[in-house]
Amino acid sequence: xxxxxxxxxxxxxxxxxxxxxxxxxxxxxxxxxxxxxxxxxxxxxxxxxxxxxxxxxxxxxxxxxxxxxxxxxxxxxxxxxxxxxxxxxxxxxxxxxxxxxxxxxxxxxxxxxxxxxxxxxxxxxxxxxxxxxxxxxxxxxxxxxxxxxxxxxxxxxxxxxxxxxxxxxxxxxxxxxxxxxxxxxxxxxxxxxxxxxxxxxxxxxxxxxxxxxxxxxxxxxxxxxxxxxxxxxxxxxxxxxxxxxxxxxxxxxxxxxxxxxxxxxxxxxxxxxxxxxxxxxxxxxxxxxxxxxxxxxxxxxxxxxxxxxxxxxxxxxxxxxxxxxxxxxxxxxxxxxxxxxxxxxxxxxxx
Length: 351
Prior knowledge:
Layout (H helix, E strand, L loop, with lengths): L1 H8 L6 H23 L1 H7 L4 H15 L20 H14 L11 H7 L6 E7 L5 H7 L4 E5 L2 E7 L6 H8 L4 E3 L3 E2 L3 H14 L11 E2 L4 H7 L2 H11 L8 H17 L2 H8 L3 H15 L6 H32 L11 H7 L2
Parallel strand pairs: 4-6
Antiparallel strand pairs: 1-3, 1-4, 1-5, 2-3
């Protein structure tokens, strides 16, 4: 709040309304999040009430404290709220839940919910899943009045009319945020876009930073297909790559990359170019592979499954490494660096 007041006083009075309109939603979102984290009783009191309702109530209180909103007799105009009023917030979460497949849609269809939410359901849409809820209302506005909702700890948005949401526009709006963008689908399949965006985000948690860019389901279709059931992927690799089981890890790795390059390139010279090694090196390794796999290398179906198995194994290793790296970063945070809102930080800031 002190930061907000400082930013207000740094501008001429005529610009205060614009500064409040820009800064207040982010402040409200952070305050509510910190209250919920620091006071479990507040979360219990809110129950299933959408967090937007608490944000709206706090925004009204802050607007009143700042003098931008008074009783109905006041002649001072109130700053228009960018946080959705309570009844509409409830309707929007209900509409989001229906689109996400978390509840049954009304027998009359989504029309009634859409009217109550003030969000006409488009013919086609795509989901955007955020790792953190920061600036979700501003982001929703930037993406064309998107529908915000919460699901399993994530903040997500449904973006209408994907034809107008060009890739550069989505990347520009999401730059610097850890996010995943689902594929464009008809409204009836909205749950699918959300499910795959969430799954993609869970596969690669990523790290924040000003240059980070969102991950797109459209760019990872084959990987998502291969990893949609990791137990089946493990079964496939165990079956097709069993001839490598008796080798040392280093030998196995060398033959795996050579076999995959050969399957992709179609011959020893092409594989050598992919691996940046001499063709004779590839031919020597291929003779070893021939002894291990035999006739399977000449069977089209077996070759296809071999490539799937090799790609699956590498994808699963990549996912494990990324998750392990994210876990190490989380554990490496010093004990003195606590999340905002802790008692320690409050004392330091004099609040």
